[in-house]
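Example 4.3 (complexes with small molecules)
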Amino acid sequence: MKLCKTVAELREEIALAKAAGKTIGLVPTMGALHEGHASLIKAAAMENELVVVSVFVNPTQFGPNEDLDAYPRTLDADCKLAESMGADIVFAPSPAEMYPSEDMTWVEVTGDITKVLCGRTRPIHFRGVTTVVSKLFNLAQPDHAYFGQKDAQQAEVIKRMVKDLFFNVQLRIMPIVREVDGLAKSSRNTYLSKAERAAAVVLSSSLETAKTLFDAGERDSKKLVEGVKKLIGDEPMADIDYVEMYALPGLKPVPEVLTEGQYLLAVAVKFGSTRLIDNVILEVK
Ligand code: PAF
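Answer. The structure with pantoate bound is encoded below.
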């Protein structure tokens, strides 16, 4: 496996792969790789002849009071995991390599899709994500790009961007990978104290309860949302940012009574200073 730290090095590798007619899979990450990322890399390796994993803690998607400096940086371990899952290239550029000038081009998806859910408390977040993902798409020229369903809003925003900007890439949104007790795998789980870690199980368990009610026939969207709010609210260590439901695709408002279609029930909750997200998709057939 090759480690590329510059745009020029990556471009050279991509040019060689393209000349050889290889299909390319891109797995964009911010590093601190865990089993969630491993599943993306594995899926990419099964479907492509060249797999590029980017490891870049993207400064433009962090707000001024967020965890940019504290975000775990574990490049050696990331390279080992990426290689063991079938990656051919790890692209780990510096911020200056990705953002060479203070004058810069933004790629921004506008509208409610980036303003609801995480967009409300993280107003610049998705603009940073779409800007860096555009750069990565242009550099790696992937046939397929892999993202996790845990970041459901991010997936919807990137789908929108790919459609609007005619990016020639197929998106693969892969299922959430969970710990044995249900907590969604996240690089931020390492911030949790023992007590917070135990309390955080309420995210998946409350969504699981909502899914059970939905499967038993509950179609009242308010009842489903309020049920999750109540369960999380009952956990003293949990500080709710949001519990909300939107229609898919595109995060549109939900009707009071759920009719045919797919719905995203999503939560963001703080445990101490750590903000975690999780979600479930409910489908009325
Ligand atoms: O999901 C992430 O880890 C990041 O938002 C991404 C897509 C790698 C962009 O920095």
